[in-house]
């Protein structure tokens, strides 16, 4: 190995664990074998120590998506103590933004998160989501959506118990309910705000007019939509509206559901029950073409002495200062790597070059199965007696 290669590897390892190296002495975090290169002087600043604003809500520049902590995309069940360990280590490394939902599990992920963050709950932002039709007695998922105000109130009371807290910092509507005017949803959230049970609200995958109406009723803190190099749909209209209204943006699946990490190749076939097996962007016909994105990421990873996942997350953060990705993981090494992303910086010329290269790759295949996609971009019905805005 040449000394140049060795230095590159050292810096890569360090970027991967950047948060830990700098934050551990300050925050009392424990060392792990991943910190073997601590003596190298080229380390980057603690990535997750940067802060960003979603509307008026301040969060770490990279959050942690905990959706898969009760069941992974590969359909395995992660170790609960290890999930608590990842949640706590993320906090030790500067992460203050945790993303859950009632539907994850259902219920189980909120319980895992509540247990994990208990020692430092007051120092973090908990985001969770209501909106799927989940029976409040059994926890069974029933067909369709439910954003009726009385249901939202009941769901929030149950969320607070599972999360072991007295307030939800950021509560999203998971999908727009085509039966319930958004003004009624905003009214329910307003009541919850008055009671102190909810501090901020947001919407996911909503129709644009619904977003405007929601914001006019009660200022929206954040929109959460899928956004990554693999799915750039929000660039067309959602991000411009967020910018116009001063709403923050939280990209879900910021790593392209794992694709942008380099973990998926032409040979990859998904386990039965892994949703990615039903997304044609990952089908055997489309994968070879779409892997051009991974080739690009690997080139830039080499250039920036980083990891492909870090470049993918840094690219998102480069798009707007009010974008905060929430990469999801059930592996400590991946969490440490991901929070190292904001140590990756682009000069304006590099950012323009990378954007051009990303835009030149046309992703083939649909992002979601049609039955799932049908829940996106939905407009809520008008409240009777209100004229169209
Ligand atoms: N609002 C919505 O409708 C919605 C929808 C989907 C997701 N979300 C939120 O967004 C969060 C993130 O999205 P996501 O989990 O769907 O997708 P993602 O963050 O794009 O990717 C997660 C996948 O990548 C793998 N991974 C993560 N970091 C990695 C690394 N450094 N190297 C290699 N593999 C890595 C994970 O597996 P390992 O566990 O093995 O690391 C997992 O399979 C979720 O947790 C959830 O909170 C919201």
From TrEMBL:
- Could you list this entry's UniProt keywords, alphabetically sorted: Oxidoreductase, Signal
Q: Where is the signal peptide?
A: 1-36
**Gene3D superfamilies recorded:** NADP-dependent oxidoreductase domain
Q: Which InterPro entries has this protein been placed in?
A: Aldo-Keto_reductase, NAD(P)_OxRdtase_dom_sf, NADP_OxRdtase_dom, TAT_signal
* Ranges where the NADP-dependent oxidoreductase domain occurs: 63-357
Kindly provide the name given to this protein in its UniProt entry.
Aldo/keto reductase
Species per Swiss-Prot/TrEMBL record: Novosphingobium rhizovicinum
